[in-house]
Specification:
The chain is α/β, with parallel strands linked by helices. The chain has 2 domains: 9-77, no CATH class; 120-322 and 343-369, no CATH class. The chain has helices spanning 35-39, 44-59, 79-110, 170-187, and strands at residues 5-9, 11-14, 17-20, 27-31, 125-136, 139-142, 144-156, 159-162, 193-194, 203-204, 207-211, 215-217, 223-226, 235-239, 243-245, 251-254, 262-266, 270-272, 277-284, 288-290, 295-302, 307-310, 313-315, 319-321, 347-349, 367-369.
């Protein structure tokens, strides 16, 4: 039957296999010698061409076009474009996630800036205790002292005070309440950095510093606090345990740093070593001890414990605002109205304090304090 022509149904080729076209009009007469070409169609181009031809035969208007075929299980022509779109979409999502993470990281670091701890009515105090004050040997304190609820004062040797002994009076009681608020405010600030236990030899810029198992200054190099010329610079140190300094160690303030803007929040006790020189407001939950000859430019506050002194010099640096707060209100005849909320107040020292090897009192107005 060479040269004979036969009618062979055109096969639609799809990803699911050949599908026979049942419509009679789709039959096409071809030479029998070309039958093999209808069965052996491995080329993707041939599959697409024959699929398009079959569609044209079925519709009968010849309007089908390869570029107009949409992707489905019969026509994979749109798959590469879909994959590319998916890749671009995934890349865009990754970029958005990275940008979001960066914004969150920036916001977190901004919240970690140290702010001055408000002491309230406790600010005039140099020594404030919950369980009494013990003083041995000649000790000089520049600032008020008080203890509540235990008002005990044990003095062995002269305790020279340039300030007021409030004992356990109403002023002390209010100051103790403000001390609790100050302790919690210092503990609540978010730390910038977890520091090593030994702070000796480090130079630290303003910020919030934390150590879970205690803070120590072991020497011989000092801890240096560098304000970089900013008088409003604040340091907050948070200890999850103790604060201890070894003998003859020291803390130095440079480039405008102020003792009244340094705070030490201590979860347990604080001990200053023999002949050590320390600066800042110490806020302990339990006891505070200044060993023989230790000097402090600042204040020592024990929330629930006692304060023990031994031949020490404590000078509370008086601070004044260098920012004028804005108030609203005002009554007739010069009577002031309710004060409004002012800006953040920065504290600067009034008078001079020698914080070298020891501290010199600001004013010579001293009087002895006796035991009670």
């Amino acid at each position: 039957m060479a040269g004979a022509s036969v009618a062979v149904p055109v096969m639609k080729v799809s990803r699911c296999g050949p599908v026979r076209v049942a419509h009679a009009s789709s039959l096409k007469v071809i030479d029998s010698s070309h039958r093999g070409h209808l069965v052996h169609r491995h080329s993707r181009r041939r599959r697409l061409q024959r699929t398009t031809t079959s569609d044209q035969s079925s519709v009968g208007d010849g309007s089908a076009d390869v570029t107009s075929v949409r992707y489905n299980h019969r026509s994979p022509t749109a798959r590469p474009r879909g994959r590319a779109a998916a890749r671009h979409g995934a890349a865009g999502t990754a970029v958005l996630l990275a940008l979001s993470a960066g914004l969150l990281a920036t916001a977190g670091s901004a919240q970690a800036v140290a702010t001055s701890v408000p002491l309230g009515t406790a600010e005039p105090f140099a020594v404030l205790s919950g369980l009494g004050i013990t003083s041995t040997g000649p000790t000089t304190v520049n600032g008020d002292i008080g203890t509540y609820p235990n008002p005990a004062m044990v003095v062995s040797g002269p305790l020279i005070l340039n300030g007021t002994d409030h004992a356990g009076d109403g002023v002390t009681q209010t100051a103790k309440s403000d001390l609790t608020a100050a302790y919690l405010a210092a503990a609540g600030q978010s730390p910038d950095t977890t520091v090593s236990a030994d702070l000796a030899g480090q130079t630290l810029t303003p910020g919030v510093y934390f150590k879970s198992d205690g803070l120590e200054i072991n020497g011989p190099l000092p801890l240096t606090l560098d304000a970089n010329g900013d008088a409003s610079a604040v340091w907050v140190f948070q200890s999850g345990s103790h604060l201890t300094t070894m003998p003859n160690t020291r803390v130095e303030l440079v480039d405008g740093a102020l003792a009244c803007n340094v705070f030490w929040q201590v979860t347990s006790s604080a001990t200053l070593g023999v002949n050590s020189a320390f600066v800042g407001t110490i806020l302990t939950l339990t006891n505070s001890s200044l060993n023989t000859g230790a000097t402090l430019e600042g204040s020592v506050f024990s929330r629930n414990g006692a304060v023990t002194l031994d031949q020490n010099t404590i000078v509370r640096p008086e601070c004044a605002s260098d920012v004028t707060a804005t108030y609203s209100g005002g009554g007739t005849g010069g009577t002031g109205g309710t004060g409004g909320t002012g800006g953040q107040v920065t504290r600067v020292p009034v008078g001079s304090v020698d914080a070298g090897g020891g501290l010199a009192a600001v004013a010579p107005r001293f009087r002895p304090v006796t035991a009670r």
